[in-house]
Amino acid sequence: MTFKDMLEDERDEGRAEGAKAKACEMAKAMLAEGDPIDKVVRCSGLSEEEIKNL
């Protein structure tokens, strides 16, 4: 694996972590607004278990 490949892998991991963090933020906001968990699951892409653990 080249240095460039390692950088690309790290960049991809960072983007995935950022996307997950954004989904969690959105889910928290939806729950605060009183949206049902099934709707939060559909809109955020998180699992029901992940949402319950927020």
Explain what you see:
This protein has 54 residues and is an all-alpha fold. The protein has one domain. Helices cover 80% and strands 0% of the residues. It contains 3 helices and no strands. The protein is elongated and about 50 Å long. The termini are far apart.
Structure summarized in a few sentences:
By secondary structure, this protein is mostly helical. The chain has helices at residues 3-32, 37-44, 48-52.
What would the keywords be for this entry?
80% helix; mainly alpha; single chain; 3 helices; 54 residues
Tally of distinct domains: 1
User: How far is the first residue's CA from the last residue's CA?
Assistant: 37 Å
Shape: elongated
Number of helices: 3
Total number of beta strands:
0
Taking pLDDT < 50 over at least 5 consecutive residues as the criterion, the unreliable ranges are none
Oligomer: single chain
Radius of gyration: 15 Å
Strand content: under 5%
**How much helix, percentage-wise, in residues?**
over 70%
Mean pLDDT: 96
Task: Please outline the helices and strands.
Blueprint: H1 3-32, H2 37-44, H3 48-52
Helix pairs in contact: 1-2
